[in-house]
Amino acid sequence: MAAMTVARALLKTGPAVAACAVLGSIGTREVNSLWYGTLRKPAVQPPPVAFPVVWTALYSDLAVTSAVALDALPEEERPAYARALAANLVLNAGWCWVAFAGHRLGWAVPTAAVLAASSVDLVRRTAAAEGLAGAALAPYAAWCTFATVLGAALWRANRGRRP
């Protein structure tokens, strides 16, 4: 196999992360719905404008740092990293569908917790491959962890409500 370069790796991670972003975006259309609008929001809820800004930056960061990690890893370690990234992206997009499209706030909390754990693992794997890339990816794991806390607070505030 030819040596990987960051640019070549980005041709793989970029579309994968973009697909996750598109699928997640479709799944979160419900944030503009009557259902979501009537939910009681926790005090820690950021303003609505924050979410697309933050997620765009984090998805860009994820694509680039994952490409850097793939480039830095020995060839035999790349498949395991790619599987961890793929699992993380599936969890990320899936959480959007469970929470918003599915109106399942209770199920969204453990889904978000697994996503947060996967994100921390991805930061660990990235840092092991390339320290600075791991540090650059840390905000992604932090935001996913915050999303878990936020989702739990949203669920607690709205327990018993029907979609």
UniProtKB/TrEMBL annotation:
One Pfam family, please name it. Answer: TspO_MBR
The protein's name: Tryptophan-rich sensory protein
Gene3D superfamilies from the xrefs?
Answer: TspO/MBR protein
- Superkingdom assignment: Bacteria
| A single Gene Ontology CC term | membrane
Provide the protein's localization. Answer: Membrane
TM segment ranges = 132-155
